[in-house]
Specification:
InterPro entries: Trp_synth_b_CS, Trp_synth_beta, Trp_synth_beta/beta-like, TrpB-like_PALP, TrpB-like_PALP_sf. The protein has about 400 residues and is of the alpha/beta class. The protein has 16 helices and 14 strands. Bound molecules: pyridoxal-5'-phosphate.
């Protein structure tokens, strides 16, 4: 018998940015003329590296022996029971990667690309300091000069990470303009790049910014989803029904989503920082509450007013405290391939406490947004019995203990 050829139209994910560097209408390259050569050079070098088996083999070797990949996919039975009866939750354990989070996957990939391009000087921006630490780590390992731009307000707030970066041999430069936080650090890093493009590689920290960074970061983080897809097939013999990940700039989420993009039966849910409330300035839920606009060289959803003025943001987790988001997520939101929700500070705290108590795993506050959101979905009866669920545990919570103690009114 002939198979029925008539099918409902399948979702087709646009896998690569188009000629203008865009996923649908999002992304692109809104950059000053002075950086066009540097971006063209980066794009060409990355295209070559991506197709070069020697580069991929070198990356794989370091991922295995330095980062500790593959990270485990781990079934959490006691946490599952708390979410809903008869569901199975697995965690992708990026918290077990070297330096305790997924950021090292991208930092390593870009540092190897820099080395291949003959660039000995690495610059990067950092907000909470996590990307700065990951960058300083791989630069130390590869013997590259490392300069980290950080807002002066963040330098004060994140003194432990500043110390880590210095210990790893990096120079930390203070950005003293504007709000003196992440946005300003990014601006300073671009300024440095304009002046030193010949010798310098700008190692960007999340799946945002001008093309080709969203693509580069997505590709280097996709190792998360590629491994997870194989692991869940091994354990369960099928794909999950649902995948959750927290979304700041969007790198850990796109890293686990992308390798499942073609499997339309797998629901993809990004969880943003709902902060103290959904009032303007009290959260960082860009895809939930924002509108399209241009920030840091790309078109994407953005927390802004009608005049394009960017709002202040708040989140209990510094890693989610960003008013923009990567363009591929904006594209996935509009196409309906992924959905996005917000978890409040309190919800994230609850997620952190519940996973700690039920499974002996203290998650990062960022990842805890996805955990808390899942618990609340269960409480609302939104999870079908028999569901197989994957949560990307983007990092470990050690770095957040002082913040958590304060939020719980515990004095240390
Ligand atoms: C930086 C960070 C995030 C947020 O960044 P994305 O680019 O959205 O992944 C999430 N989790 C942890 C542990 C982080 O350090």
């Amino acid at each position: 018998m002939q198979a029925q050829e008539e099918k409902t139209p399948q979702y087709q994910h646009q896998r690569y940015p188009d000629q203008r560097g865009r996923f649908g209408e999002y992304g692109g390259q809104f950059i000053p003329e002075s950086l066009s050569t540097a971006f063209a050079e980066l794009q060409a070098a990355y295209e070559e590296a991506r197709k070069d088996p020697a580069f991929q083999a070198e990356l794989e070797t370091y991922l295995r022996h330095y980062v500790g990949r593959p990270t485990p996919l781990y079934y959490v039975p006691r946490f599952s029971k708390l979410v809903a009866p008869d569901v199975k939750v697995y965690l992708k354990r990026e918290d077990l990667a070297h330096t305790g989070a997924h950021k090292i996957n991208n930092a390593l990939g870009q540092a190897l690309l820099a080395k291949r391009m003959g660039k000995q000087r690495i610059i990067a921006e950092t907000g909470a300091g996590q990307h700065g630490v990951a960058t300083a780590t791989v630069c130390a390992m590869l013997g590259l000069e490392c300069i980290i731009y950080m807002g002066s307000v963040d330098i004060e707030r994140q003194s432990l990470n500043v110390f880590r970066m210095k210990l790893l041999g990096a120079e930390v430069r203070s950005a003293d303009t504007g709000s003196r936080t992440l946005k300003d650090a990014i601006n300073e890093a671009f300024r440095d790049w304009v002046a030193n493009a010949e010798s310098t590689f700008y190692l960007f920290g999340t799946a945002a910014g001008p093309h080709p960074y969203p693509l580069i970061v997505r590709d280097f983080q996709s190792v998360i989803g590629t491994e997870a897809r194989e692991q869940i097939q091994d354990f369960e013999g099928r794909l999950p029904d649902m995948i959750l990940a927290c979304v700041g700039g969007g790198s850990n989420a796109i890293g686990i989503f992308y390798p499942f993009a073609d499997a339309s039966e797998v629901k993809l849910i990004g969880v943003e920082a709902g902060g103290r409330s959904m009032e303007q300035g009290e959260h960082a839920a860009t895809l939930v509450a924002g509108t399209p606009g241009v920030l840091h060289g790309a078109m994407s959803y953005l927390l802004q007013n009608e005049d394009g003025q960017v709002f202040d943001t708040h989140s209990i987790s510094a890693g989610l405290d960003y008013p923009g988001v990567g363009p591929e997520h904006s594209y996935m939101k509009d196409s309906g391939r992924a959905t996005y929700g917000a978890a409040s500070d309190a919800t994230a705290l609850r997620g952190l406490q519940e996973l700690s108590r039920t499974e002996g795993i203290i998650p990062a506050l960022e990842s805890s947004h996805a955990l808390g959101y899942l618990i609340e979905m269960g409480q609302r009866g939104e999870i079908a019995p028999g569901s197989l669920i994957l949560v990307n545990l983007s990092g470990r919570g050690d770095k957040d203990m002082i913040t958590v103690a304060k939020a719980l009114n515990v004095s240390l």
